[in-house]
Design a protein that fits this description.
Elements: E1 12-15, E2 18-24, E3 29-34, E4 62-64, H1 65-69, E5 84-86, H2 89-107, E6 112-113, H3 128-138, E7 144-146, H4 152-161, H5 165-170, H6 175-181, E8 184-188, H7 208-217, E9 221-225, E10 239-241, H8 248-261, H9 267-273, E11 274-275, H10 277-285, H11 295-302, H12 306-318, E12 321-325, H13 337-349, E13 358-360, E14 391-393, H14 397-402, E15 407-410, E16 413-416, E17 422-426, H15 430-433, H16 437-443, E18 449-454, H17 459-462, E19 466-469, E20 478-480, E21 487-491, H18 504-514, H19 518-522, H20 527-544, H21 552-558, E22 560-562, H22 574-578, E23 592-593, H23 597-602, E24 628-631, H24 647-650, E25 659-662, H25 664-669, E26 677-682, E27 685-693, E28 701-703, E29 719-720, E30 747-752
Parallel strand pairs: 6-17, 7-14, 8-9, 8-12, 9-10, 11-23, 12-13, 17-18, 18-19, 24-28, 25-27, 27-29
Antiparallel strand pairs: 1-2, 2-3, 4-5, 4-19, 15-16, 20-21, 21-22, 24-30, 25-28, 26-27, 26-30
Helix pairs in contact: 3-18, 4-13, 6-7, 8-11, 8-12, 8-13, 11-12
Bound molecules: ligand MGD (2 copies) and molybdenum atom.
One ligand MGD binds at residues 118-121, 126, 128, 149-150, 331, 426-429, 432-433, 453-456, 458, 470, 472, 504, 632-634, 639-642, 706, 725-726, 729, 743.
Domain Molybdopterin oxidoreductase: 57-513
Domain Molybdopterin dinucleotide-binding: 628-746
GO molecular function: electron transfer activity; molybdenum ion binding; molybdopterin cofactor binding; oxidoreductase activity; transferase activity
């Protein structure tokens, strides 16, 4: 941007929320300035100032007192409420070597849980989970996890319906195709720009705002289907439809029914490109179960005007329509259904594969969705092979700890939980991200040992026995290149880490060395050697895909490189639409599966063979009259729990409490005024919050971002003082198919806080 001073001589650093120029006075970081290429930089990075040192920084290896004092029982009941003692790296390495040897020899390697979910930090080489898994694989393996918290249900359902989520995500229709060709953009779950701040692995230039506004200027009509009006920016002037949360599937069925009964569906597309429409249609019309899924039927469930559904269906048929379904829709009870429903609706409209038409899964969930770029398969740190076959669906962690040997279903398989004796987490914060934290906290006390690598004292670190202090991205050199973003950034160390901290690589290399496996772990490379190696491999892969990258030293000297954008905007499934025989999609049938013989064969009552409206276990349709549906969405001021302790996040907490947004009508009905301190509660737990009145929130809904560090009260059982909504959310799988998390399906009540 032209009005910024030239800072191109300053070193670059990169995070999931963007790229920055670092101003230092030679020793200390003074400022982080937006990268000159970024047209819409994020403020999140400013949260680092003040927390690089100080009381929240982990500065040395720490071991829990009770764990040291009782080598038999390990005083496990004190885990999460105990003191720590500082030890040397030599001592901690010897404690860990002994414990790993004991656990693997007594119980086998499957007793180590190394699933370690979490976002860690940007940087191709310094990827915490990659190093953890490489190390654990080297010592005989570990139980791992599959799928994500982001959209586990979406990943598994897409495997059956369109051949995989991540493949489709990489094929997402570009924003430019939408700008040039769409007439209507219907966003289930909205287009939250605050989420587009983020891109896993880093981003050079934030594109979502500019693209949306270009589309609007070009006449695209936006429709936001969401409990929050501000899930799309005001400038889009979007039509706001606000069904009850967790009822989008009913609304989409109402749209499908309208298309079918009014003859507005594209039978030719359905015949050529999909399988199983007839089975789905029998359900839609009620031939199968006696209930036609009319607009009227849907409106009753969603609590909206049926006319809105009828008119929207007709408009979507008349105009070139892009349908977006946000990832949040999958983090719900029966979260497999919304993506399947959106894909079914788009199939009936028959615009899939046309410029600006069809569907996209999560525009603005992250900056990379809809970017005009080559999707390049860059190399990642090799993790070796895991000799242990056992895994859990990522969000079944508490079930696993509570229920060793217990059986569970997953995607057609019958599996059992291992007997976990040691947990190792690096680069994630389960005491932020998991549901029903009070239940997790109790189950977490079962294993003998918990090891956590982190750079700051998160609740997870506080619930560990052995805490290994690591660095953050400001404190190490690396390369930010994600393959989902055209920018490659040579990251430089711009802040000195506390002297006793180590990079995750060094932590595991040190341990491997002590266990006689140092050479196997390092393969003879030092940290710079690995970065050269990974970049060199990536360069070869890019070249094979027709893209030339500068060599490593040139990249380092220049600081960054932008991969040129392709000549023409990408359109999802374009080739498939043109010739489904020649270009099948990777499903069983090669076509879009509106009825899946495979899913049907699993016989799951909670995920039948076609899209089905399944009542959520908890929603505004079955709760007490004073219950509110809690939307615990992504925070604007941070990435999940990262930098919650920093000024940007803390500065957004009026009077130190997390904001709970409420419609003024709901506040008035409860006698609550703006700024009131409340306890948000249900049968699972409670947390403190401060009421903020806002008519952008649908009546019956309360909204509170995730990310506040879990801070359990020592006086009141089950109460989080910092306002982490996961003390309220239910921990159960979306269905037997994906077993994904369901944070967005949650009812709560409010009472004045006792403070
Ligand atoms: N209620 C509710 N809960 C949710 C969600 C929701 O919508 N509602 N969303 C869910 C979703 S989509 C997700 S993805 C999860 C996110 O959950 P997580 O990914 O676990 O959350 P983060 O806060 O990003 O955790 C990353 C941790 O890694 C640490 N870290 C950063 N860099 C490094 C490093 O270099 N090395 C090491 N060792 N550690 C590092 C950070 O300090 C932080 O503690 O949360 C889920 N939970
Ligand atoms: N700033 C910031 N950006 C982020 C993240 C972050 O922590 N901070 N996290 C990143 C990660 S890991 C992920 S997975 C993505 C997640 O991206 P999303 O899944 O899109 O994130 P959410 O903010 O949970 O949800 C988006 C909106 O969906 C709406 N919604 C919730 N339930 C329903 C429903 O039943 N029906 C309808 N129609 N709408 C509903 C809510 O109003 C919410 O604001 O965000 C990424 N971006
Ligand atoms: Mo996520």
């Amino acid at each position: 941007m032209t009005d910024r001073p030239d800072r191109s001589h300053m070193p670059l650093t990169a995070m999931h929320w963007g790229t920055y120029r670092a101003e230092t006075d030679g020793t200390t970081l003074q400022a982080l300035h937006p990268f000159e290429e970024d047209v819409d930089p994020s403020n999140i990075a400013q949260g680092y100032f003040g927390v690089l040192d100080g009381p929240t920084r982990i500065t040395a290896p720490m071991v829990r007192k009770g764990w040291l004092e009782d080598p038999e029982g390990r005083n496990r009941d004190r885990r999460g409420a105990d003191d720590f003692v500082e030890v040397s790296w030599g001592r901690v390495e010897s404690l860990l070597t002994d414990e790993l040897t004991r656990v693997t020899q007594t119980y086998g390697n499957e007793a180590i849980y190394g699933g370690s979910y979490g976002w860690a930090s940007a940087g191709r080489f310094h990827h915490a989970q990659g190093h953890l898994r490489r190390f654990l694989n080297l010592i005989g393996g570990h139980t791992t996890s599959v799928n994500t918290y982001s959209l586990a249900a979406g990943e598994v359902i897409c495997e059956h319906v369109i051949g995989g989520f991540w493949v489709a995500a990489a094929d997402t229709t570009d924003w430019q195709s939408i700008v040039d060709n769409s007439e209507v953009f219907v966003a289930f779950g909205g287009l939250p720009l605050r989420n587009g701040q983020i891109s896993q692995g880093g981003t050079g230039r934030h594109r979502q705002r500019e693209a949306m506004l270009d589309a609007r200027r070009n006449g695209v009509e936006f429709v936001t289907v969401s409990p929050l009006r501000d899930d799309s920016v005001a400038a889009l002037d979007a039509q706001w439809i606000a069904p009850r949360p967790s009822t989008d599937v009913a609304m989409i069925l109402g749209l499908c029914h309208t298309l079918l009964t009014e003859g507005l569906h594209d039978q030719a597309f359905l015949d050529r490109c999909t399988v199983g429409f007839d089975r789905f249609a029998a359900y839609l019309t009620g031939a199968q179960d006696g209930t036609p899924k009319t607009a009227q039927w849907a409106a009753g469930i969603c609590d909206i005007d049926p006319q809105v559904i009828l008119e929207l269906a007709r408009k979507m048929h008349r105009k070139r329509t892009m349908i977006s379904a946000s990832w949040s829709l999958t983090r719900q009870d029966h979260g497999e259904q919304p993506f399947w429903a959106a894909i079914t609706l788009a199939s009936m409209l028959g615009q899939i594969g046309l410029p600006g038409g069809g569907f996209g899964l999560g525009y603005s969930a992250v900056n990379s969705l809809g970017l005009e770029n080559h999707s390049l398969p860059y190399a990642a740190m090799p993790q070796g092979a895991n000799p242990v076959q056992r895994f859990i669906p990522v969000a079944r962690i508490t079930d696993m700890l509570e229920n060793p040997g217990g059986a569970f279903d997953y995607n057609g398989q019958k599996l059992t939980y291992p007997d976990t004796r040691l947990i190792w987490w690096a680069g994630g914060n389960p005491f932020h991200h998991h549901q029903d934290l009070n239940r997790l906290r109790a189950a977490w006390r079962r294993p003998d040992t918990v090891v956590v690598n982190d750079w700051c004292w998160t609740a997870t670190a506080q619930h560990a026995d052995i805490v290994l202090p690591c660095t953050n991205p400001l404190e190490r050199s690396d390369i930010s290149m994600s393959g989902r973003d055209p920018y490659i950034i040579a990251m430089e160390q711009v802040s000195a880490p506390p002297p006793l901290t180590r990079n995750d690589y060094e932590i595991f290399h040190g341990l491997a060395t002590r266990m006689g496996l140092g050479a196997a772990f390092s393969e003879g490379r030092d940290q710079d050697g690995w970065q050269r190696h990974l970049y060199g491999e990536s360069r070869n892969r890019a070249r094979a895909a027709g893209v030339e990258l500068p060599d490593y030293d040139t990249l380092r000297a220049r600081g960054w490189h932008k991969v040129p954008v392709p000549d023409k905007p990408n359109v999802m499934f374009e080739a498939f639409r043109a010739d489904p025989q020649a270009h099948p999609i990777p499903t069983k049938s090669g076509k879009i599966e509106l009825w899946s013989a495979e899913i049907d064969s699993f016989g799951y009552d909670d995920c039948p063979g076609h899209v089905t409206w399944l009542e959520p276990f908890e929603w505004l349709g079955n709760g007490d009259t004073d219950a509110l549906h809690l939307i615990s969405n992504q925070p604007r001021t941070k990435l999940h729990s990262q930098l919650d302790h920093g000024l940007v996040s803390q500065g957004d907490r009026p009077g130190g409490l997390e904001r709970l947004r409420l419609n003024p009508k709901d506040a008035a009905a409860r006698g609550l005024s703006d700024g009131a301190a409340v306890e948000v509660f249900n049968s699972r737990g409670a947390c403190l919050a401060r009421v903020v009145l806002d008519d952008a929130v649908r009546p019956g809904v309360a909204q509170m971002a995730t990310g506040a560090w879990f801070n359990p009260s020592r006086q009141v059982e089950g109460l989080c003082l910092n306002g982490n909504p996961n003390v309220l959310t239910e921990d159960r799988g979306t269905s037997k198919l994906a077993q994904g998390p369901i944070a967005h399906t949650c009812l709560v009540k409010l009472r004045p806080a006792q403070m």
